[in-house]
Write a structure and sequence with these properties.
Number of helices: 5
Strand order of the largest sheet: 1-2-3-4-6-7-9-8
Number of strands: 10
Shape: globular
Number of domains: 1
Largest sheet: 8 strands, mixed
Distance between the termini: 40 Å
CATH class: Alpha Beta
Strand content: 25-35%
CATH superfamily: Gcn5-related N-acetyltransferase (GNAT)
Radius of gyration: 16 Å
CATH topology: Aminopeptidase
Order of helices and strands: EEHHEEHEEHEHEEE
Structural class: alpha+beta
């Protein structure tokens, strides 16, 4: 994984996106954003760090400002959210999570994380998929995905959590639909 350096982000500083290689850092950063995002155990955080396909730690002037976990469609992630996509599609990058620190919001961190995913997807001719809680709604994340060109392609209800996740895809033309499975 490479490092991406972006100078003078929104006139506020220097953003760098580098490998996310510390599972404890991922877990702490992630769990600070619960309930808008699912909680991580150290075991799951280690798995995600070892299987992420893009650099995922954003620092702003050297301070951790955001993180993302992006997997591909063959990662074999043991997640009902991910499995919903792999049962239906191939040829995609899956944004498992993006979190921006409270202090860094509004400074372009999420925008640059998403742009790095877009660049990788376009270079490899892949779709990009993501899911966002729609009930109860994560309003900011729903709005962000829609304004970044994602299309709503479905929803998934989780009775154990009493939550519904909206399913989004960008670069739909790059996805390959799997044939329907028969019982």
């Amino acid at each position: 994984m490479r490092t991406m350096r972006i100078e003078n982000v929104g006139g506020v500083g220097h953003l760098e996106i580098r490998a996310l290689d510390n599972a404890y850092e991922l877990m702490e950063f992630n769990n600070a954003a619960v309930p808008d995002i699912g909680e991580l155990t150290i075991h799951k955080a280690e798995w995600l760090v070892n299987h992420a396909v893009l650099p995922g730690l954003a620092t702003l002037d050297g301070r951790p400002a955001g993180m993302m976990v992006v997997l591909n469609d063959t990662s074999g992630y043991d997640s009902d959210f991910y499995r919903w996509f792999t049962e239906r599609y191939e040829n995609f990058l899956y944004i498992d999570r993006i979190v921006v620190a409270d202090w860094a919001r509004g400074q372009g961190v999420a925008k640059h994380l998403y742009e790095s995913v877009d660049q990788a997807a376009q270079a490899k001719k892949l779709a990009v998929v993501a899911d966002v809680y729609s009930e109860p709604p994560n309003v900011a994340s729903l709005r962000l995905h829609l304004t970044r060109g994602f299309q709503s392609i479905g929803a998934q209800y989780f009775p154990d959590r009493n939550k519904t996740a909206a399913k989004f895809m960008k670069y739909v033309e790059q996805a390959k639909t799997k044939p329907a499975q028969t019982a």
